[in-house]
Amino acid sequence: MWQRIQTLYLFLGFAINGILFLLTFALLSTDVISHKLSLYGIENPEGGTPLFTSNYGVILCVLSMLLSFIIMAMFKKRQVQLKLVRFNLLAQLGFVVFMFMVADSAAIELGLAEGFTLKYGVGTYLSILPLIFIFLATRGIKKDEALVKAADRIR
């Protein structure tokens, strides 16, 4: 199980998605105040309740992490693993698109339509890496399946 390269790719995607819970995705700033966009929403600079919350990003990130873990455990069922890894790729892509859309629409939600700057944080760019790792895991699973089929033909 652990000696397969796709398991390493899935674990790296799982770990990076876990790190995303701690990082800032974007910084919305004006001349007066700046707001941080995290996975949970837009944090209030003065503290207290968040200004904008969205659970969809958290749900998509947890779904991708859960699927990665399940796929790692299903190392004997390559066909099911391949279907789940494609669904995981779709979930991670939805997560990346959602976080970019939230970062762009957050300024409108806050009423900062003019005079604001949007700087994407390290979390936004780091959320693309699990997408790459999941794609590489797909290729590894396909290679394993081709190797098993070739061995079956020889018998």
Protein described:
The chain has about 160 residues and is α+β, with helices and mostly antiparallel strands. The chain has a single domain, classed as Butyryl-CoA Dehydrogenase, subunit A, domain 3 (Up-down Bundle), CATH 1.20.140.150. It is built from 5 helices and 5 strands, in the order αββββααβαα. A 5-stranded antiparallel sheet has the order 4-3-2-1-5. β1 and β2 form a beta hairpin. α1 runs antiparallel to α2, α1 packs antiparallel against α5 and α3 packs antiparallel against α5. The longest helix has about 35 residues. The protein is elongated. The model has no long low-confidence stretch (mean pLDDT about 85).
Q: Outline of this structure?
A:
The protein has helices at about 5-20, 55-75, 80-110, 120-125, 130-155, and strands at about 25-30, 35-40, 40, 50-55, 115-120. By secondary structure, it is α+β, with helices and mostly antiparallel strands. It has one domain (about 5-150): Up-down Bundle (Butyryl-CoA Dehydrogenase, subunit A, domain 3), CATH 1.20.140.150.
List the helices and strands and how they pair.
Blueprint: H1 5-19, E1 24-29, E2 34-38, E3 41-42, E4 52-53, H2 56-73, H3 78-110, E5 117-120, H4 122-126, H5 129-154
Antiparallel strand pairs: 1-2, 1-5, 2-3, 3-4
